[in-house]
Amino acid sequence: WLGNPLVPRGSALSSGVRQVTGGFALAVWLVGAAMAVPRLRHPGPMSSSDRTYPWIALGLYSILSGMIATVGRSGFGLEQATESRYTTFAIPLVVAAVALGAELFGVCRRESSRIRRACATTGYGMTALLLALHGHAVATSLPFMRDLGFRLRGAKTAVLLHRLVIDEPHLRWLFPSPPEMLGEFARIKSHGQLNYDAMELSEFREGCAKAGAPDPANGWLDAWARRGDHVAFGGWVRLGDKGIPGTNVILTWAGSDSILHPLALALPGGPRPDVAELLHDERFAKCGFTGTASLEDVPTGRVRLDAWTVDTDDWSVHQLANARPFLTRPGSAPPAARPTG
Hints:
Layout (H helix, E strand, L loop, with lengths): L14 H25 L13 H21 L13 H24 L3 H47 L7 H4 L6 H13 L10 H10 L8 E9 L2 E10 L4 E2 L3 E6 L5 E7 L6 H7 L8 E7 L7 E10 L4 E4 L4 E4 L14
Antiparallel strand pairs: 1-2, 2-3, 2-6, 4-5, 4-7, 7-8, 7-9
């Protein structure tokens, strides 16, 4: 638990290194605290409590938090100790160990005792090791942090557009039961304690009517195929008016009455190096999207598939290029998809 901030889950180092690292951090802090406490009562370089007391208190906070987590969570297994949410409770010990160790071992080094100078050298070595492990932990955690950030942004987008399409996989990142969560959101919002506005279907259709003709600058719907009673689709998305990657794609169908019906929500994040090369902008290296939509509520026969993206900052709607006719009648095949754009 104490070593997890420096050897997080996903690290190439073994779990044994995590335990040794936690022991190192605890040892540095214990030695520093043991040397600091007597000095708080005597004059000398470390007589001022404001130079040591904060680090002792900060380390105690982590140690006591670890004890509480051990008592309350040990029944879930050892891997529970590697949950990233505990990092904010465990990392203060590492910070306190580095600060307290550097402060106190620096004082020891200035004294004449060879033993104390040896302790100072050892302390500097252990502190350097903790800092090196910290660099390793940052390098290990960044990809996971980016992935988590992407998933949470996707969950937020799914919440803002849930009145158009319910995307349960992304909503489950916030709560296991999306209907229960959305109902609770509405209840809390009615009391003025939650500030968010989900897009209404009428607003979406109005935005689509104002969007104008499909614009290749907004991206392309460049793959589609029926798989049983579902349609798989894909492409890439961009907010053409701002020149930035889009955050969502809504697939719609329309029959002979031309009324748009949202069918599925897709979130970009798939690799599209070709688009990044075409636009000379690495921000679009992961602007691709894929999705699957059920055709259960779509009438049989010929309909039109359109793809749209919503700018969740100003709620404007933009249409992607390459809208296609689609046959939903069982046994008929949709037009073969060809790479476009």
